[in-house]
């Protein structure tokens, strides 16, 4: 079904808004499908999105979201997966560096940062989906969102050094578990989500560091090389994903 670019963009924004509002995925797709049919028929008669929804996109999205119930079951499924996945990144990174010691402050702080970042992401996605903003403003907001967890982690490190709390240290067996368990989590998430993201990202983040640590290079050189390789790999992967998604979108518009 071929609809205009504006209509396709509106549907994608609506999907993002409803998903960020904690609505059921199946119900979202049903609403998107019905609205796509209406838009297709309306465009054949020379009408546009505003003619169909009868209000601004933001008002329409808020109305639809208010009419739908929050998917508590879905949230209880997604949030633990996200938190466990985030913990796995930290655990694997620490295992590679041999820094398997965690204070009570860290064990409380990490979940708080994850949940706060999740809430911040949801709020930002809803705002971006329901408002027309410039690309510069959009990238700035995403930059702030992306840097917020980093700032909080740095603050947590300094607070942990200032307030000494009991710590748990993992031994040799713990290190083995700390390597195997995150890998199993990443594979499990990849199978569940049917994407390679949860496997590719750890490889990009940790594999260069793992290899460089086993070379005779000085520490400053290792940091420089790693600082170049990781961003380049991230950009390359992002471009590949964008190209794949663009091809999918092109096929949809041609149907």
Automatic annotation (TrEMBL):
UniProtKB keywords: Membrane, Transmembrane, Transmembrane helix
Enumerate the transmembrane spans: 75-96, 108-127, 139-158, 170-189, 196-212, 224-242
- Keyword NADP found: no
Occurrences of domain HAAS transmembrane region (ranges): 89-204
Please name the Gene3D superfamilies in this protein's record: c-terminal domain of poly(a) binding protein (1.10.1900.10)
Q: Does the keyword Membrane apply?
A: yes
**Domain of life of the native organism:** Bacteria
Q: Which Pfam families match?
A: HAAS_TM
Q: Which PANTHER family match?
A: MEMBRANE PROTEIN, MEMBRANE PROTEIN-RELATED
State the protein's name. HAAS transmembrane region domain-containing protein
- Please report the organism this UniProt entry assigns to the protein: Robertmurraya kyonggiensis
Q: What is the lineage of its organism?
A: Bacteria, Bacillati, Bacillota, Bacilli, Bacillales
């Amino acid at each position: 079904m071929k609809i205009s670019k504006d209509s396709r963009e509106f549907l994608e924004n609506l999907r993002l808004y409803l998903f960020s509002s904690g609505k059921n995925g199946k119900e979202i797709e049903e609403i998107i499908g019905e609205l796509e049919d209406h838009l297709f028929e309306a465009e054949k008669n020379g009408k546009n999105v505003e003619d169909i929804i009868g209000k601004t996109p933001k008002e329409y999205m808020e109305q639809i979201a208010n009419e739908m119930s929050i998917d508590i079951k879905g949230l209880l499924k997604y949030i633990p997966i996200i938190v466990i996945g985030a913990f796995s990144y930290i655990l694997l990174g620490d295992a590679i560096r041999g820094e398997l010691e965690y204070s009570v402050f860290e064990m409380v702080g990490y979940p708080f940062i994850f949940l706060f970042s999740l809430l911040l992401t949801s709020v930002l996605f809803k705002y971006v989906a329901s408002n027309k903003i410039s690309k510069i403003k959009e990238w700035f907001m995403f930059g702030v969102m992306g840097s917020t967890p980093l700032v909080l982690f740095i603050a947590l490190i300094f607070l942990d050094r200032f307030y000494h709390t009991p710590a748990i240290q993992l031994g040799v067996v713990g290190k083995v578990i700390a390597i195997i368990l995150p890998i199993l989590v990443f594979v499990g998430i990849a199978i569940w989500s049917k994407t390679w993201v949860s496997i590719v990202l750890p490889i990009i983040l940790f594999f260069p560091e793992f290899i460089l640590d086993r070379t005779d290079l000085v520490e400053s050189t290792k940091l420089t090389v790693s600082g170049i390789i990781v961003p380049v790999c991230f950009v390359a992967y992002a471009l590949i994903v964008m190209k794949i998604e663009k091809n999918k979108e092109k096929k949809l518009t041609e149907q």
